[in-house]
Amino acid sequence: MIKQSDIFILLAVAISFAVSGYLWFSGQREEGLFTALWVPSILCFGIYFKLIVLGASKS
Questions:
Q1: Is 29 left (phi over 0), alpha (psi -120 to 50) or beta?
Q2: Helix axis angle, 38-58 to 4-25, nearest 10°
Q3: Residues 5-17: tens digit of each pLDDT
Q4: Domain positions in the chain
């Protein structure tokens, strides 16, 4: 089941990916690479908190 928090995390990932692509193809390669590093970081952040919620519900 997809929750509202999951949608916000995926939206943040999509925005970061789009901004990264825009920066890369507009010639700002270093800024594009820096922004591209946000994508896995945001996903890990979302997974971490999803696991905390699942662990708390089992206790």
A1: alpha
A2: 170
A3: 899 999 999 999 9
A4: 4-53
